[in-house]
Amino acid sequence: MEKFADEATIEVTSGSGGNGCVAFRREKYIPKGGPSGGDGGRGGSIVFTVRRNLRTLAHLRYKHTFKAENGHDGENWGRYGSNGEDMVIPLPPGSLIRDSDTGELIRDFTKNQEDFIYLKGGNGGWGNIHFKSSINQAPRKAHPGKPGVTIKLKVELQIMADIGLVGFPNAGKSSLLDKFTNARPKIAAYPFTTKIPNLGVLNIGEKDIIIADIPGLIEGASQGAGLGIRFLKHISRTAALAFLIDLSDDNYLDAFDILLNELGTFSQELIKKKRLLVGTKTDLDGTQERLSELTAKYPNEEVMSISVFSGEGIKELSFAFLRLTEAAADEAEENKSGDINEDSFSEEIDEEFQGEYE
Hints:
- Helix 5 links the parallel strand 13 (274-280) and strand 14 (303-305).
- The strands form three sheets. A six-stranded mixed sheet has the order 10-11-9-12-13-14, with helices on both faces. The protein has a five-stranded mixed sheet with strand order 3-1-8-5-6. A three-stranded mixed sheet has the order 4-2-7, with no helix packed on it.
- The chain has 358 residues and is of the alpha/beta class.
- The protein has helices at 58-62, 173-180, 228-235, 252-266, 287-297, 314-337, 348-357, and strands at 7-13, 46-50, 65-67, 87-91, 95-99, 105-108, 116-119, 150-157, 161-167, 198-204, 207-213, 238-246, 274-280, 303-305.
- Helix content is 23%, strand content 23%.
């Protein structure tokens, strides 16, 4: 199995501050030079940063503890100790950080992907140069550095994509991703070939559409059956959904209802996403009649058909994905601004990108 991880528990520790120094200036002709102990340096901080080339949390599985460098102690001649190096922890986009004990959300890296200083290092202690006074010319007092802080965190990954491919095992999701993008998921003629989410980028003109192939769901996935429960959460970050229905399967008429029920049981927000139905494997005998039956059963749903083997419907589906992504983006913007716009999509999108796709 590929090295994919979407959860990890780690322990992070900020650096302790360096201790202040007790020292006195001693030179040949200055017998009473006074205190000269410098301050300790600040300890390093724990910093999380988003790296777009990361797609998994596997690097956090192999290293569980992360500790920033301690600040260095102050020295004689009023020299301050150097600050400790920060510990920078890279995360893929779509990561969330939670308190391991309480489950409280600390940071969502989908809404803000700037570097996040989580734990600041301890302050360095004052050296004895700060404690000189008119009544205490030779203080032998210095402050210790502030200790670092150790916290256990749970890091989760929810994949961010424009289109999520949803379907039963062997519905043709991986084949479609392979056809559309440069992703090369494992493809075989048996169920559960895909055990991890796969991402690919569909290029249409100057537009990039990120497609996620989610491992196949089965009935009862929302209660833990099969591989579904582990990956249903990844669908929540997709902008829109494409339900792939295997027209060569005898349960083709019930597939969409079952899939929609599993998604709704897991989260009602999932069934509110923009979506379309895609009948697959139309190159096989009898599938055209089944496609007609599927379309008739769901008159209020957009139903399309494809054959990855023959290429039938592939171009049309790519344009549909573009419209779906644009529509979801507009809807999100409207919800964000509160200004609802009823603009609809026309066939101009198809005409604009038709030549470039070919």
